[in-house]
Amino acid sequence: MASTPMDLDEPASSTATPSLNITRTLGANVPSTSKVSDVISAFRPTKLFQRDDIKEGKPQPYVLSIDFDDPGDLCMTSESDETIQIYNVKEGRHDKSLLSKKYGVKLAKFTHTSSSIIYASTKQNDAIRYLATHDNSFIRYFEGHEKSVTSLALHPGSDNFISCSLDNTVRLWNIGTKQWTAKLLLNTPHLAAWDPSGTVFAVASPASGTVLLYDYRNYQKAPISVVDVLKARGPAEPDAAFRGWTTLEFSNDGKHILLGSKQGGHFLLDAFDGSLKAYLKKRNGETTRRLAVGESESGNVESSADCCFSPDGRYVLSGAKKDLLVWDTMATPAGANKVLEPAYVLEEKREAAVVAYNPRYNMIATADQELMFWLPDPHA
């Protein structure tokens, strides 16, 4: 098997880093050079970023989340040492490190302006913070949650966003004001996601075994649809319908909902009727060591998006203790249980606990304690 030579980041070097060979994905009004389906099997771990600012004797931090800005030019991580790291995608280099030592940081997300971000606190209080990255100054605090925030979901067309919390509330926010605009009281609303049109949002509640879909214009009313995960779990154990959830995401074509699980497989659900389209079975039931959202255990950290869709909505990528698993959602699941085996296993010795696919370019980022950029090998 042909492989792409590994490149190691050297942040202390004064020499310019050569641009990575990145090709665009298919998307609305975006020039394309490669379809995702043409390159998905050829991805290889290409550039490893190693933190050079970790003091001797200090443990290597964990990457808690990965996010890309809208143009796909910047990649951002939030890390367990209370830092935010920002990387230039096309040049394959580390850009800056931002500190949040007083409040901690997790779930960092770009707004639709690449120079500003929101993130959840891990200490002091449970406020959400709005930060300008060019000078590391706070623009606004969003206060109201009384326990830890578990999910932040930015509206696809505006800077409105949703937050979920262990205080059993879902709050809707307008980024222009610090006061929440709406509050829903739900049982364990640990995860939230927007559909690509921004007219529907979903909330995942593991304690009730449901995914609730709301009309954004009438969220005060009852959900427009309720997905019964116990009914739609396929061959998974009943326990998987009520715990261990890690990810909630709509595909960009609006047809599917991905409900990630730390157990033996992920759930691919029909976004319209809530039925199980496929049970994405992990290889040998292998999963990452991270905790599911809302779980707590001394010495371990939460998962944050350990699986995701490709931008065309066709593929689902998932981390594991080693390698990167890829399912083709257009493939026919096997049997009445609708089991779908991985179409590709992309080899990598490091654990991929957090996974993200660039929205504009054919590149993938994965991490556990170090960030890895994946690119298609042109010789594969």
TrEMBL record:
GO terms for cellular component: Set1C/COMPASS complex. It is found in: Nucleus. Keywords: Nucleus, Repeat, WD repeat. Gene3D superfamilies: YVTN repeat-like/Quinoprotein amine dehydrogenase (2.130.10.10). SUPFAM superfamilies: WD40 repeat-like. Pfam families: WD40. This is WD40-repeat-containing domain protein. The lineage of its organism: Eukaryota, Fungi, Dikarya, Ascomycota, Pezizomycotina.
